[in-house]
Prior knowledge:
Blueprint: E1 14-15, E2 18-19, H1 25-31, E3 33-36, H2 48-61, H3 78-88, H4 104-117, E4 122-126, H5 134-147, E5 152-156, H6 160-166, E6 170-174, E7 177-182, H7 184-188, H8 191-196
Parallel strand pairs: 3-4, 4-5
Antiparallel strand pairs: 1-2, 6-7
Helix pairs in contact: 2-3, 2-4, 3-4, 4-5
Amino acid sequence: MLAGELATTRGQVFFRGQDITGIGVTAVCQMGMSKSYQINQLFESLTVRQNTMIPVLARSRGKYRVDMLRGLHHAAGLDEQVNAAIELVGLTHQADTLVSELPYGEKRRLEIGLALATGANVLLFDEPLAGLGPEERMHVVALLKSIRKGRSMVIVEHDMDAMFELAERITVLYEGRKLAEGTPDEIRMNPAVQAAYLGGMDEHEPA
């Protein structure tokens, strides 16, 4: 609903003081809010560079047009913007590789890169660490840390350790209801959260 993908059943969504309820994904993105999906939404038959061109062009040209990838020499600063987004997610060495040939972890980083390439400074991430091995998880956590300066990020994630490391404020849901909200330290020491998600903690057990 925040990203404009689903209609609200009640209530309103405000973004920077403006009512954006029901205005749609494209309009929300143009205003500076973008979403990265849990299941990668990538064009597998295109290269990393070509995938990244699409959100950059969408930012500069508005709604999708059938000629989006034609006449790209007319798009001022396109190469610089695309290269900057690719570099930000550490995929410069894979810029001309087909997405279908990338390992899963690099696809996850590219998915985040597409959200960044829209120029959004409010980013919604749906389980960005899902399915990652330990090494790629470390890379993606480092990436999220590196891009948060000057941006607001809302992350839905089950990896509590990563959230304790990344988040300034955490809201914990349990069976669809808010269980607790607070700083990472407050959430870590919350008895209800410990019982529900952290497996309980013996107060006499050394840290």
